[in-house]
Amino acid sequence: MISRRRFAALPAAALVPPLAAPALLAGGRVSAQALVRTSYGPTTTDISTGHAGHTSLPATLGYWRNEGLDVNVFGIAGSTMGVQLLSAGHVDFVGLSGEDILAARARGIPIRSVYLHARQPISRIVVPADSGITAIAQLRGKTLGVPVLGPDPYATGAFAEAGLDLEKDVTRVAVGTGAPALLALRRGDVAGYLAWDTAVAGLEVRGMRFTEFRPSYYDELFGLCVATRDEVVEKRPDLVVGMCRGIAEGVTFGMANPEAAIRIHWQAYPQSRPQGGDEAKLLQDAKHVFMSRFVLYALEPGARFGESRPAQWERVAGMMRAAGRLPADPDLAAAYTNRFVPAVNAFDADAVRARAVRYPQP
């Protein structure tokens, strides 16, 4: 038990032509005519400051543009829709969990992870701190809120470890994120909330205090990946490298200067900035949401951006097999690749951090 303080829009472009070296203008700037159009879909329509690493930062700071890319970022309502849009070629990259990718491949959908983004689970199981609930087992017979209805392997495994069947022993209802979820919790319509880190942090800055429950094997899991189709991996490797390296640079900038990153995100997504109130308090609250995700991007000693560890995928697969959601012998090697890791990390991280520290100075 852990105490805590505190549709999808259709993309403008689907498949794009092979990536070519971008034409440069004076000063090394990339010609707009040379940019290759592609697309990325976070599987949420609530693109908060916590999502800045794969949305506003690489776009606003020019990291994707420097790779010759014009990236259309749009929110997708849930991973099920994300897998559908990705497999149909309506979007080139989607943020998905390992469970999403393994389940898709088990159904014959040729997608894979090309970049391990969040290095710990982003899923959260929380109840109000004053609820008196001190263990998952006490949620038997309760109604729990979720942002959107769909499979939840993380919660399924955690509940199974506590002796509960998520599908039979509790009722899940869609309450969304933000104000609707807050209302449902405060009125007692739901006894807890199964959501992702930034959604929970967003409720904490609105005054909620939570107790979080994690399975015993939490540290053996991972969170969000950047996924694409097999054909993109094989035919357009430069596109994969450019997309993922831009994200790695954006994350590096954000970790070096969260406050600057938040202000950049507010400019790119004005709806993510609360209206009114004390500026210092708004920034403090935004940083709470921001760090709820960015702490998961931190590299463990010896790790590189985007790098998967086979043992993590084996642990996720075992969890899914136990839940009956995966065949006994899944082809894990087809679900992810580390082939792009060296190229993705081929950037001057010190220069990115130095830029962040002096931002907005050039």
Automatic annotation (TrEMBL):
Keyword Coiled coil: no
Pfam family, any one: NMT1
GO biological process: thiamine biosynthetic process
Domain SsuA/THI5-like, first and last residues per copy: 60-261
Record lineage: Bacteria, Pseudomonadati, Pseudomonadota, Alphaproteobacteria, Acetobacterales
Identification of the protein by name: ABC transporter substrate-binding protein
Span of the signal peptide: 1-23
Keyword entries, A-Z: Signal
Matching PANTHER family: 4-AMINO-5-HYDROXYMETHYL-2-METHYLPYRIMIDINE PHOSPHATE SYNTHASE THI11-RELATED, RIBOFLAVIN-BINDING PROTEIN RIBY
InterPro entries found in the cross-reference section: NMT1/THI5, SsuA/THI5
